Protein backbone atom coordinates (compact mmCIF):
# COMPACT_ATOMS: atom_id res chain seq x y z
CA UNK A 1 0.00 0.00 0.00
CA UNK A 2 1.22 3.48 -0.84
CA UNK A 3 0.05 6.54 1.08
CA UNK A 4 0.96 10.10 0.18
CA UNK A 5 0.52 13.14 2.37
CA UNK A 6 0.28 16.19 0.11
CA UNK A 7 1.27 19.62 1.36
CA UNK A 8 4.07 21.94 2.39
CA UNK A 9 5.68 22.02 5.81
CA UNK A 10 2.70 23.80 7.39
CA UNK A 11 1.51 22.78 10.89
CA UNK A 12 -1.66 21.10 9.54
CA UNK A 13 0.34 19.14 6.98
CA UNK A 14 2.83 18.01 9.63
CA UNK A 15 -0.03 16.92 11.91
CA UNK A 16 -1.66 15.02 9.05
CA UNK A 17 1.59 13.17 8.38
CA UNK A 18 1.83 12.23 12.07
CA UNK A 19 -1.79 10.98 12.18
CA UNK A 20 -1.23 8.87 9.05
CA UNK A 21 2.03 7.36 10.35
CA UNK A 22 0.45 6.63 13.75
CA UNK A 23 -2.52 4.90 12.07
CA UNK A 24 -0.23 2.79 9.87
CA UNK A 25 1.84 1.76 12.89
CA UNK A 26 -1.29 0.87 14.88
CA UNK A 27 -2.86 -1.12 12.03
CA UNK A 28 0.16 -3.25 11.24
CA UNK A 29 -0.57 -2.78 7.52
CA UNK A 30 2.47 -2.85 5.24
CA UNK A 31 2.33 0.69 3.86
CA UNK A 32 4.82 3.21 2.58
CA UNK A 33 4.09 6.80 3.63
CA UNK A 34 5.56 9.57 1.47
CA UNK A 35 5.36 13.35 1.83
CA UNK A 36 4.75 15.31 -1.39
CA UNK A 37 5.57 19.00 -1.07
CA UNK A 38 6.05 20.01 -4.72
CA UNK A 39 3.05 22.12 -5.73
CA UNK A 40 3.12 20.83 -9.32
CA UNK A 41 3.05 17.20 -8.16
CA UNK A 42 0.24 18.00 -5.71
CA UNK A 43 -1.73 19.54 -8.59
CA UNK A 44 -1.38 16.32 -10.59
CA UNK A 45 -3.76 14.72 -8.08
CA UNK A 46 -6.37 17.41 -8.79
CA UNK A 47 -5.86 18.73 -5.28
CA UNK A 48 -5.88 22.46 -4.70
CA UNK A 49 -6.17 22.48 -0.91
CA UNK A 50 -3.80 21.02 1.63
CA UNK A 51 -3.25 18.93 3.57
CA UNK A 52 -4.46 16.04 1.46
CA UNK A 53 -4.12 12.27 1.78
CA UNK A 54 -3.90 9.85 -1.15
CA UNK A 55 -4.17 6.08 -0.59
CA UNK A 56 -3.10 3.87 -3.50
CA UNK A 57 -3.75 6.70 -5.96
CA UNK A 58 -7.19 7.64 -4.59
CA UNK A 59 -7.63 11.04 -2.92
CA UNK A 60 -9.23 10.39 0.48
CA UNK A 61 -9.04 13.77 2.23
CA UNK A 62 -8.49 17.40 1.20
CA UNK A 63 -8.14 20.56 3.26
CA UNK A 64 -8.39 19.03 6.72
CA UNK A 65 -6.56 16.87 9.19
CA UNK A 66 -8.16 13.42 9.12
CA UNK A 67 -8.75 11.55 12.35
CA UNK A 68 -6.78 8.40 13.07
CA UNK A 69 -10.05 6.42 12.83
CA UNK A 70 -10.67 7.79 9.32
CA UNK A 71 -7.18 6.78 8.22
CA UNK A 72 -7.59 3.32 9.76
CA UNK A 73 -10.78 2.80 7.72
CA UNK A 74 -8.99 3.79 4.52
CA UNK A 75 -6.06 1.46 5.03
CA UNK A 76 -7.94 -1.56 6.34
CA UNK A 77 -10.10 -1.94 3.20
Q: Per CATH, what is the topology?
A: Glutaredoxin
Number of strands: 4
CATH superfamily: Glutaredoxin
Radius of gyration: 11 Å
CATH-derived architecture: 3-Layer(aba) Sandwich
The CATH class name reads Alpha Beta
Relative strand content: 15-25%
Q: pLDDT below 50 for ≥5 consecutive residues: which ranges? A: none
Give a structural overview.
A hairpin with a 2-residue loop joins strand 3 and strand 4. The chain has helices at 11-27, 39-43, 68-75; strands at 2-6, 32-36, 52-55, 58-62. The chain is built from three helices and four strands, in the order E-H-E-H-E-E-H. Strands 2-1-3-4 form a four-stranded mixed β-sheet. The mean pLDDT is 96. The radius of gyration is 11 Å and the shape is globular. The chain has 77 residues and is α+β, with helices and mostly antiparallel strands.
In short:
With 77 residues, the chain is α+β, with helices and mostly antiparallel strands. It has 3 helices and 4 strands.
How do the strands and helices of this protein lay out in sequence?
Elements: E1 2-6, H1 11-27, E2 32-36, H2 39-43, E3 52-55, E4 58-62, H3 68-75
Parallel strand pairs: 1-2
Antiparallel strand pairs: 1-3, 3-4
Helix pairs in contact: 1-3
Task: Write out key terms for the chains shown.
4-stranded mixed sheet, 77 residues, globular, alpha+beta, 3 helices, Glutaredoxin
